[in-house]
Structures
1.
Amino acid sequence: MKKFLLFLLTAAMLLAMTACNGDSSTGATATPAAGGQTSAGGSIKIGGTGPLTGGAAIYGQAARNGAQIAVDEINALGGIQFELQYQDDEHDAEKAVNAYNTLKDWGMQISLGSVTSTPCVATSVENNADRIFALTPSASAVAVTEGKNNVFQMCFADPNQGTASAQYINDQKLGTKIAVIYKNDDVYSSGIYETFSSKAAELGLDVVSTTTFTEDSQQDFSVQLADAKNNGADLIFLPMYYTPASLIFQQAKSMDYSPKYFGVDGMDGILTLEGFNAELAEGVMLLTPFNADSTDTRTVNFVAKYNDAFSEVPNQFAADGYDCIYAIYAAVKAGNITSAMSASEMCEILVKQFTTTSFNGLTGDNVTWGANGQVSKSPKGMIIENGAYVGMD
């Protein structure tokens, strides 16, 4: 009897040790060679990189937060389950690639690419080589998708933003003499400027001043503003992110120069920039696909959830992140994708779904994608009034 009890005790201990150590065939997520990632845990792993710290952190944090709200909503439905992880790339291309590799080691099966354009140009090369499908919320450079049939954009591509901005300024008669200040060492800013310039010439807009700056010179805009002022510009087009724009607003006021300002989606988020006097942005106009003041049910619910979770009104980048997850969810359902599939298997199904179906989201209805990965949807004109974004259309 004692020997039998000893046998049972030993067997129980061995069973417990096996359970604790796990079985390599069914336990932790497998991470085979590039493009072959699978998830054995039942959740599809979605990864993205973005600036979670540093000067562009508002963009990365907003995209991540919006995406996480969508993941939580979808997971609460039961059925398809997502697991989301974002890595900080500090708006730096090299760090973005390192962050991407961390996500690949984690077992990423679907990618949200990178939040900003320069890092996303670098990580999109990796997405394409590894055959991991990517849908970036807000990296708008043409080079992000160019030559890569598995990389898509939720945001407008730079050429579309430049063309649409010139058309909007012309149609709304927002300025008689236009100045442009853009960042010539940034693919986002220079890409938008090039198509804006071409469309402005076609429309006959009177562009009286065009000046540039670089990463190393974006603290002092006195020369650029003086040129615009001396040439009588009553509207300045700013195809740039909000950080340099905030300095332009401050320095223009110190010069007693108060033109109208028109920006693009990179301007969204300026009202939550730490230490910025929001009164300086009063009257600033921009094109964006998302209006937090919209009264449709989807937007109202999203804004309420976002405000409850993060104590601020969501910007376009948050809405883009949210829409990315739901667009992926719709494609996963339609394509009968399961977590047991490899990343490369998912990739081919998702490419087919995104190029043959439409999507309704916070940032647009009947959204479609071309084979080049660029999105088709309508922008909205916004103006900042009393510290809030208000629709102009």
2.
Amino acid sequence: MAIEDLSKKASDLAGKAGGFAKQNADKIEEALKSEKAEGISDKILDGAAGLANKVTGGKHADRISEARDNLDGKIGNE
């Protein structure tokens, strides 16, 4: 398969994904605000924040915590 074919397929899939997201915006928003999403996002965000703190030696812990909390407020129900 040529690179042009892959690019066209990727573009087609992106268009379909965008259409799906528009048609199901309410359901997607509901899923992102669910208790299950909250639990999953907390685990992922905690892990990412922990890794960032480890990599930076804790030098930016306050900024990392702020970014983690900001993202957490956008996903889940807490």
3.
Amino acid sequence: MTKKSKDNIPVQRLLVPSYILTISKLLTAISPFLASRFAAKLFLTPFKYKLPEREKKMDQKSVQKTIMVPSMNREIVTYEYGLGPKKVLLVHGWSGRGTQLAKIAEALEKEGFMCVSFDAPAHGKASGKMSMMPFFFKAIHHLDEQYGPFEAVIGHSLGGMASLRAIRDGLKTRKLVIIGTANNISEITRHFARNMKMNDKVARKMKAYLDNRFNEDMDVLSGGESAKYVKTPTLVIHDEEDVDVKISSAHQIHEELENSILMITKGLGHRRILGNKKVINKITTFIAAQSL
């Protein structure tokens, strides 16, 4: 399968074993209730994959530590890459890892920055089998206490949503960059269910179950909802052909932000965008600039 053809397949569909899709489809036909519970478990379970070649340099050259985050009683694995005095926090997406933004980290290191990133619980080298978005922004706040303040925060996909939420909740940083970030949790659950060969009815039941389990309407975590409270200068980057997160999310978040720039690319999808030279140059220039 070529890189281009992979771009046309949602990452969830690429990583999930085929037998899971068979079970999902069968349960949907038999019992939407049982299917929704199965979907909820899948939704909170990151998919594992082999470390890509493009991430090996950062993995080999970074200082790594396993630390406990008291606010969630979970361990994360941290990565320190570079020795610059100014620090940038990198936040990976769902089923990603701390080296997912490796090419961006390499460019920032050349500009004199130290990049700090982490494997969220149940991601990469971190322990655990299940995870959730609140773990991401709790980890962000903990790293801010340990390493901050950060010159900038860069988040990909769910990492962008978590970064927006963390800033809404008081994280201070000079610049924010979000890449391929979704706007609405309800839309995410519908998209997830369809990728798992389920339907919108199952998605609604799954969302209701998760809301009840966490005693909160998960839509309050949506990117656009958090963006209403974010005044930090923000660069919003998204590809027109992103099959994991619709381009409409970028426009919606951009509209809610008080101080933002929107960069739309074409032909890079949800993942290759992280290694594109023009995108990386835009990010480094944005972070190094004194003002928006």
